[in-house]
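Look over both lines:
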Amino acid sequence: MDNLCCLRDFSNVNLTVIVETKAFLTLENIVMTRLLLIFIFVFALVGCATGSALVTGQARTAIEDHLSVKVLTQMPVGAEEIAIVKASSDAGWTEQGSLDYAVEELKKQAAKLGANAVVITGRDTSSEVYSVPVYNSFPITGSSSIEIVQGVAIWVN
C-alpha cells in the first residue's frame, strides 16, 4: 500500500508538470501559428521577379541557358536589336539582392527571344509599404523596394 501511495504522489507531480507544459506549448503554438501565417502572407506579398518583352526586331531560337546571356552597358557595333526587355523584383533581402533577381529575370527574357546579350538602358527603384492585420493584436507593417531594370535584348556575333 505504501508503494501505491508513493506512485500516486509521483503521478500527481508528473501530471502537474504535463499540464503546465501543455499550457505553455498551447500558448507557444498559438504564437508560432500566428508567426507562420504572417510569414506566409508577407512572402506572398513579396513575390518574385517578373519580366516582359516588346519584340522590335527578329526573334531567334531561344537560348536554353540564360546564364550565358551577357549584360552590357553600351550597344556594341554591329549588334542586332531583338527586343526591349523589362524586369522587376522585390524578392531580395537587400536592394542589391532585388537588383540581382531583376537582372537575372532580364537575362531570362532575353534568352527566350534568342538574344545573347542585354544592354542595360535604365534602372529605377520603387518603394511600397504594406500592413498585415493580426487577430487580437496590432498590425505588422513593413516596406519593400522594387528594383526595375530595362534593357535592349541583342544578338552580337
Q: What stands out?
A: Residues 72 and 78 are 14 Å apart (CA to CA). Residues 1-24 have pLDDT under 50 and may be disordered.
